[in-house]
Amino acid sequence: MGYYNGSPFGLSNHGQFPDAGLLIIDDSMALTLKSKRDNFYIWCNADQFVQRHRLTGLNSGMFISEGSEAIYYGYYNLDWRLIDQSNDRFASSVSKYINQPIEVLYQKLVHNYELLARSNPIARFNLERLYLS
Question: What predicted TM-score, i.e. pTM, was given to this entire model?
Answer without folding.
Answer: 0.86
